[in-house]
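Q: My labmate handed me this sequence with no annotations at all. I'd like to see what the chain might look like in three dimensions before we decide whether it's worth expressing. Could you predict it?
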Amino acid sequence: MTPTLVRQPLPHAGIAPRVDLCARARDWSEIQERMLVPLYEAVYERLEVGSGTRLLGLGCGSGLALLMAASRGAEVTGVECHSPERLALARERLLPETADARARTGARLVEGAPRDVAGARTTPYGLVTAFEPIGCLAGDSEGLAELLAEAIPLAGRGAAVVLAGWGPPERCATSSVLRVATRLADPLRSAAGWRPALRDDLEEVAHRAGLKPDGSGRVSCPFGYPGTEAAVRGLLSTGLFDAAIVATDQAQVEKELTEALHPHQRPDGTVWMPNVFRYLIARVP
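A: Here is what I predict for the chain of 285 residues:
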């Protein structure tokens, strides 16, 4: 069957090219999403996520972070408003085929916004996660602020809210590759311009949401791929290069992205880019 090509905004892009969204979501879940596993593990370990945890995941995507929390015994709810294709993959991961099995997992996935969860439960959430990293594109925290405004009323007093962001450029090898997106997207730079992560990005979002910072950390999240083809597919699946594809074309972006990856290619053909991501733990007053 020939895949249907449609236009649809992705989380990181204000302008979306014509892409196969099902293939894009599959690349995200099979290649790129696992790069953030150290971040998920560090947060869950620090907050002692377990059988007493009720977790609301914002922008849950294809559900790997939720799956990891559920494996620790947490009761998880995921909300995804940008990509029904990713959410369909999350359902495959988290929702078994039989009703009895679904009842045992306790997982719930919602296509929409946090407000669509509000009428379905009365017990407040003790942990809210927003693992989609900010601090890479200009204005990439605006949508997060809106999600938090809807999610915070669902959390109990003192509940932890976790925000994630890119680390400083000098500690993120992928930064040099992401600059390709800005250069090719010009003159659409205002729509998707790369910018270096700032020290207080996460704190500013928390402050606007009325949250009280309560600790932070940095986690090494290297991006490793078996070859440049997988690296290109994985990076494109983030949506960070969509404006560049609109301004040029898919082939041009893939060509220049491949060239930008050459310095990070090892003699055995694998691609390795060390990165540091930062997380902030804030509390609901």
